[in-house]
Amino acid sequence: MFEIPDRPGPAPRTRGPIPHGQLNQVAPTTLQEELWQRMRSLAGVYVAPTHVPYPEARAIHLAPEFGTGPADAFIKNSREFAHLHPQQDGSLHMTLPSTVKKIVTEAGWGVPHPIQNTQLVYGPRDRDEIEVVWRVLLQSYDYARGRVPE
């Protein structure tokens, strides 16, 4: 079963629904870039423009031969399953199974998008937090690949 620790401190302020993002407690640029490099290095992932009205976001998509997940494992009937917002924001949107969305929300790591099937995940503020955010992102990747969480 997927588990994560509670996120320390108060939740960041957010805006939205369009664009939906984080307004404070922004992840340091070095951590954003490390997370982006990890995201784009996953097997079967390719970088392409996002399908949401936030053109500065950097999106990852999954090649069809790697991604056999359900339709809601992808954003807007595309191959995109996650994107990282620009540096002034640093949060991410990703698709997640409903059980994982609930865990992420209850542990204080993000909130569901108010009108789309994605979860806003707050950007990591430190080295410990990047590991939690990465574990959540891997849940999105597995979902897009058609792997059911235990």
TrEMBL record:
InterPro entries membership: Luciferase, Luciferase_dom
Domain Luciferase: 79-137
Pfam families: Luciferase
Region Disordered: start-end pairs: 1-23
Highest taxon of the lineage: Bacteria
PANTHER family according to UniProt: AMINO ACID PERMEASE_ SLC12A DOMAIN-CONTAINING PROTEIN
Name listed for the protein in its UniProt record: Luciferase family protein
